[in-house]
Amino acid sequence: MEVYSVAVAGLLGAILAGIVGFLKSTEPFNARKFLATVVTAVLIGAGLGVAYTGATVGARELLMALMTGAGTDYGRNVLSGAIVARLNRNGPPPLPRG
Description:
Blueprint: H1 2-24, H2 31-51, H3 59-90
Helix pairs in contact: 1-2, 1-3, 2-3
């Protein structure tokens, strides 16, 4: 049961980060962006659940899972935004000749 609570904490952390990001922006709701957050949250939750298998879980571990989920989703968002901005600025990379 403890493994599931860690997985849910990671999932909630990533979804919370997505909701805060939406509330912070002035853009209208974009379901595609939120779906990327949900997929990230599920992967984070599954990974944390596997990582904590067999471990004793207390309040500190649940808080760390929540923050890990939020931080990972935020990092994914910043990284994907930077990649898109660079591609838009420089154009797509040239195709290899072959």
